[in-house]
Amino acid sequence: MSDDENILLSEDQGAVRVLTLNRPKARNCLSMDLMTAVRGALADAAESDSVRAVVLTGAGPAFSSGHDLKELTAHRNDPDKGRAFYEDTMRTCAEMMLAIVRLPKPVIAAVNGIATAAGCQLVATCDLAVAATDARFATPGVNIGLFCSTPMVALSRNVSRKAAMEMLLLGEMVGAEDAMRLGLLNRVVAADRVVNEAVAFGRTIASKPGRTLKIGKEAFYRQAEMPLDEAYRYTASVMVENMLDAEAEEGIGAFLDKREPNWPR
């Protein structure tokens, strides 16, 4: 199979959809076709009533090495020296990252190997992340004269400013345990358990009421960009609307009645 065939694999494991970046020979670098495929798969997951969570992983020894530099370099011979293609690439990448954030279902990265540049950005963008003990992370663009400016958006929203700047300015690899300590990861597990652990994460989340998860995920990302007083006003209004939802009525009633909730569908 060539890297151009079936560049994104999809498999449902119960209520969890596992999406696998499938360009192993190219270290799952993010070509335009692959980014477009991921966006389409996320849209499909959003519309599926049976999918309650998404796991994103990579085939082969890498999660993702970032943008497809060979594809980008090939467009230097365009009449505009590649400007239009580069703009399209960065726009498509941003749209893919935003699709993850805006998906009304959690997305969990299962990091099976290196995640560098936009690949590291992809991990940081996912709601949760599980990594293999030998996974490594970097934003190494500074080493090749291309600062990781778009990866820094997600990275700086996951780790401290000092940690983000260290990764961005030094461009060095960070091991899985250090990445978890910095806040980039939730769990580090043996390599042969990465996808299963992420799926287990997803199944636990899938057991929760769906509309409540949707409300909570959207509110989390919106309030994070607000000043403190505005965030409290916004989340208070979200809580009121959530309280009036049938899921909250059933969940609170079940808690008070000391019974298992029967979530409305």
UniProtKB/TrEMBL annotation:
Keywords: Fatty acid metabolism, Lipid metabolism, Lyase, Transit peptide. GO terms for biological process: fatty acid metabolic process. GO terms for molecular function: hydro-lyase activity. It comes from the Bacteria. The keyword Ligase does not apply. The keyword Methyltransferase does not apply. Transmembrane segments: none annotated. SUPFAM superfamilies: ClpP/crotonase (SSF52096). May play a role in fatty acid biosynthesis and insulin sensitivity. Belongs to the enoyl-CoA hydratase/isomerase family. This is Enoyl-CoA hydratase domain-containing protein 3, mitochondrial. It comes from Methyloceanibacter caenitepidi.
